[in-house]
Amino acid sequence: MRFLLKVNIPVEAGNTAAKAGTLGATIQSILADLKPEAAYFTDNNGQRAGFIVFEMQDAAEIPAIAEPWFLAFNASIELHPVMIPADLANAGPAIEQAVNSYGR
User: Fold this and answer.
1) Which domain holds residue 86?
2) Of 12, 27, 41, 68, which has the most beta carbons under 10 Å away?
């Protein structure tokens, strides 16, 4: 299943890593292990942030995904299942059933 991982790196932890010259290398190392479909970096709530799309097959994978960010940057994360347009199209019958059951 495809997930969106939102990572917020606190300013102080990010600055410490940047000054030590390890910010980029650490992020690249974490991403190399995660093997994301896509990764985008920006700001969020005044902090360095990443929005990363990846595949996860089992909830038991969550610690391996989250802990590197926690340990390296004291980051906060959010995990959200996401769909591509084809997934949404496949969900059409379930949406229609929900409308018929609850939307009237």
Assistant:
1) 2-102
2) 27
